[in-house]
Design brief:
Structural class: mainly alpha
Low-confidence stretches: none
Helix content: 10-25%
Largest sheet: none
Order of helices and strands: H
Number of strands: 0
Strand content: under 5%
Length: 69
Amino acid sequence: MQGSLSPIDSFTPEMIATATVVVDSSGGSFTEITGEATRFVSESRAKDGALFLFIRHTSASSRPGKCGS
């Protein structure tokens, strides 16, 4: 199946911020990290952009949603 590619937008980012969050979990249940993500966005003074999470665990999953408003 052939796909189509939209025009490519190119820009220089105003800021790239990174941090490491360590979350202790007892396992076997959902661990909410929205607060930590919201705190990161707030403290980094980010404006528009994207938040990428790398979760290093094979059974981890995420729910897409709006972080902060």
